[in-house]
Amino acid sequence: MNLYVMRHGKTTWNEKGITQGKRKVRLNKSGAEQVRKVASDHKSCNFDVIICSPLVRTMQTARIMNEYHNIKIIKDEALTEIGQGIFEGKKKTGLSQHDQFLKKARSKECGMESFEECYNRMGVFLSGIKEKYNYQNVLLITHNVCASFIDDILLKKKKDFGNKEFSHHFDNAEIKHFVI
pTM (2 decimals)? Predict the structure, then answer.
């Protein structure tokens, strides 16, 4: 299976440093243009299906990517962004020291999903992808944390969940190709 993993295009919240999480945030004008360029660059790819997070920004990205392919778009909850709890909608630089500590700790008290939980969710998704989606060329459209964990899993990178820093692997509208 050829697996193309893509992060959604840019949003105003990306530009302003606001934590998005599962909020209904749309692509901004530059994000839509980013995706249009990537779609044009990949118009010769023979995608069989697009599987994406059901969130607004990923669905918009999928529709733009699909302008050259006219294929089935499947929403899969497993690809939804990591839960950011009470920090969704808050500017990252405006947090108190206490809130910064809670966010970095991925505190359950704040309704957050841990990095380990999200990583495991991506692992479960990948372990069943060939059986659930029997296609040769698959475009996955998801979010930074999910895409980065998919990258880690497929490249067999070791994760240290004791280290609370997140390792970012995807820019907005970036695609990486894997053969699985």
Answer: 0.95
